[in-house]
Amino acid sequence: MLFKYHAIDQDGQERDGTIEAPSQEVAISALQRRNLIISAIGSAEKHSVLDMDIALFNRVSNKEIVILSRQIATLFEAQVSALRVFRLLAAEVDNKYLATILSTVGDDIQGGTPISKALQRHPKAFSAFYVNMVRAGEESGKLSETFNYLADYLDRSYDLISKAENALIYPIFVIGVFFAVMTLMLTIVIPNITAVLVDSGQPIPIYTQIIIGLSNFIIHYGIFVLIALIGLGVYAWQLGKTERGKLMLDSLKIGIPYVGDLYRKLYLSRIADNFATMLLSGVSVVEAIEITSSVVGNAAFKVILEEVGKDVKGGASISDSLAKHPDIPGIMVAMTRVGEETGELGKILTTLAKFYNREVQNAVDTLVGLIEPIMIVALGLAVGILVAAVLLPIYNLANAI
Questions:
Q1: Distance from chain centroid for Cα 89
Q2: pLDDT per residue over 319-346, tens digit each?
Q3: Which of 11, 92, 313, 388 minimizes the number of CB atoms within 10 Å of its CB?
Q4: What string of DSSP letters covers 344-380?
Q5: Can you tell me the distance from the alpha carbon of 210 to that of 186, in angstroms, rounded to the nearest whole number?
Q6: Given phi > 0 = left and psi -120 to 50 = alpha, else beta, which region is 141?
Q7: Distance between CA atoms of 263 and 266, rounded to whole angstroms?
Q8: Strand, coil or helix: 20
Q9: What are the backbone angles phi and psi of residue 281, rounded to the nearest 5°?
Q10: Are 74 and 94 in contact (CB under 8 A)?
Q11: What sign does the CA torsion over 269, 275, 278, 281 have?
Q12: What H or E segment, with its residue span, contains residue 67?
C-alpha cells in the first residue's frame, strides 16, 4: 500500500512524502529507521472495488520465490550491493505484493538490518527455512551460493509436490463424475422406469427392490445426507485448525492404503532434502532439525522431528533417535548412521532425498496408470448394475404379455 506521511527530520525540517509498505506499522518502522519523527501518516491510495488490495489475493507463489532467488544469486555474484539488489528487483517483479515486500526489505537493509532479519518480517513470502538458510549464508559469507541452493531446493520441492497433487486431481474428478452420474440415475432415470414395474402389478425381484429403495431414500433424504456431509467437512476443517485435530488428520492421511504411502515418501523426501540443504549451508544440526520440523507440512512427522531434536540436544545420535519411530523407514535410519560415522551426513541425505524423489515420481506414475482403468470399470459396473436391475424385470414383463 502507498502511505502519505508528514515528518520532521534530524535537522528539524518538515518533510512530506509517500512510502510503499504492506501495512501502516511497517511504514512507520521504515520511516523511523530513516531517523524521521512522524507527525501524521495515512493511506494515499484511492480504493475501488477493482483495485482494493484484498488480503486473500496478497500471496507469493513458490515459482516466484524460485525465480527471485536465482535473480538475487546472480546479482550477488555480479558484486551488486544488497540494497541495490532489492531495489532493482522491487522495480522489476510483476507481483505488486512481492514488489512491496522487496521495497520494504530494501528499506530495512538501508536502516542497517541484516538481510535475514529483513526477510523474517515477511513470513507469507519467506519461510523459516528460507530465512535460516539466508542467515547461514550471511555468517559464512556465501550468500550467492546460498540463494542458488534455495532456488534449487524450492524448484525440486515445487516440482515434486505439484506432480503429486496433480496426480490426485484426475481421480477426484472421476470420483465426482461417478457420484454425479449415480445421483442422476437414481433420482431421475430409475424412478421413471420403475413406475412401469409398480403399475404392472407383477412381483418385483429383490435386487430391483433394493435399487428402488435406494432411489427413494436419495430422493426423500438425499438433501439431509448432503447437509450432513457438508457439516462433516466443516467440522474436519475446524478440527484441522487445532493441534490435536491436525495431528489426527495428518496421521490418517499417511495411513490410507497406497495414497498414504505416497504421502509418506513425499514427506520423507522433504525432510531429507531440507536437512541436507541446511547442513551443507552451515546450519547447525539441532537448528536444522527444528526448522525442518516446522516446515515439513505434516503434524505427525513434525512431532517425530521435535522428539528427535530433544534427543539430539540430550546427546543422542540422529540415527538412534530416528530409529525409535516406526514411521521412519530403516533405510533412512541406516543411511543417516552411515553419514554420521563418515562425517558426510549432508551428502548422504542428499542421496536419500533423490531416492525418495524417484520413489514419489514412480508412485505417482503408477497411480495415474491404475486410476483411469479402475475408475472406468467401476463406473461401467455401477451403471450396468442399476440398468440391469430395472430393465431385466421390464424385459420379463414384456415376455409375459
A1: 26
A2: 999 999 988 999 899 999 999 999 888 8
A3: 11
A4: -HHHHHHHHHHHHHHHHHHHHHHHHHHHHHHHHHHHH
A5: 12
A6: left
A7: 5
A8: strand
A9: -95, 0
A10: no
A11: negative
A12: helix 62-77
Q: Which residue has the cell 528539524?
A: 12
Q: Which three cell numbers stand for residue 195?
A: 413406475
Write the single-letter amino acid at 56: L
The secondary element (H helix, E strand) that includes residue 4 is: strand 2-8
Backbone dihedral angles phi then psi of residue 142, each to the nearest 5 degrees: -125, 55
Name the 3-class secondary structure at 38. strand
- Class of residue 117 by CB neighbours under 10 A (exposed 0-12, middle 13-18, buried 19+): middle
Looking at residue 323, its amino acid is A
List of the chain residues with pLDDT < 70: 1-2, 10-12, 20-26, 39, 44-58, 160, 164, 167-168, 397-401
pTM value is 0.64
All 3 cell numbers of residue 231? 457439516
Residues 251-273 have pLDDT tens digits of 888 888 877 888 888 888 888 88
